[in-house]
Amino acid sequence: MSHKPPQIPFSSGTVSKQTHVDLPNGTFEEEYGRQGFFGRTTHLYRKNAPTGWTRIDGPLHPHAYDANAALGTATTAPKRFLGNDDVCLWIYAPQKQTPHYVRNADGDEAWFIHAGSGFLETDFGPLKYRKGDYLVVPRGTTYRFFPDAGAPQFYLLIESFSEFELPDRGSLGRHAFLDPACIDVPQAAASGAPATDGKEWKLKIKRQNEYTDVYYPFNPLNVVGWRGDAFAYRFNVEDIRPIISPRFHLPPSVHTTLMAKNFVLCTFAPRPMETGDPKAQRVPFFHSNIEFDEVIFYHDGDFFSRSGITPGMFTFHPQGIHHGPHPKAFANQFSKEFAQEYAVMIDTTRPLKAFDTAVSCEMVDYKNSWKEYAKP
Prior knowledge:
Structural class: mainly beta
Shape: elongated
Distance between the termini: 55 Å
CATH topology of the largest domain: Jelly Rolls
Order of helices and strands: EEEEEEEEEEEEEEEEEEEEEHEEEH
Strand content: 25-35%
CATH superfamily of the largest domain: Jelly Rolls
Radius of gyration: 22 Å
């Protein structure tokens, strides 16, 4: 059996004894890390915050989007928001039941229910859903949404062009973070929904981002039984028990919820701050996303590290440009004892592109929200 020796760090100049703890006076710690938070890492202790720029000229800068302002374009069909060759993010705000069945031949789908409730019909049976639910729908599944009437709906779709998997928790055990017993699976039940136009049932299939309509003289959701280990399922953010350390700020990777090829999906849930050591940092550390684009969708609560961000908004921090806590959060971090927030994060190894829907609701001044750091 091969054994990889531990990586021994070197140091030079003024540094802290331990990462994220008891920073030298007047310094800002930056995490310069490879492979996200898993590879080789150096911590740089700077005299000024790396986000203390006075201006940025060019396309590379932090972005924020208020998706609430774009929901009106996504009432009849999902709208692409951000994406690359591995994953695509869509927003959807259905006003009524989907008028036809849907099948995605391009990828697997994880739907996050930001607002609303209803039930999802699938080949495997129906799943009731509510605010804070994840609905995971494997590639090739036929399904249809039935949102409850009278309640605003807002869904985030994470479309993966590879299969979603639950992460291995290793020595923490399989019940850490999300106990598999909390996952709901549908019970087989043939659909009784009437024909689309009184004569036929319509199925719309997505393939290479093009759509084909297939018509049946019978309801295609006619499964009366199933067995196996590939199926649609549901769980809620309230089922998540965050992994915490009261004396050390853990990296976002500990909140990984689902994994796929070249990206991970993480969920931030309410958790205590690092109150076990008065010298330990309580806010995310500065870093520059050397090998990952980072997107966070803000669902609910008080987003302590970001000023001006409210539920239904996205932040997008691309590879190569620094980001970190906003100045007021950094200054007030030791007064905060609990992080009351729910958010969904998607980290991608390949750069993301913003589609028209995102561009239309961009908060263009977001890149200047760190300017307080630039003051002498």
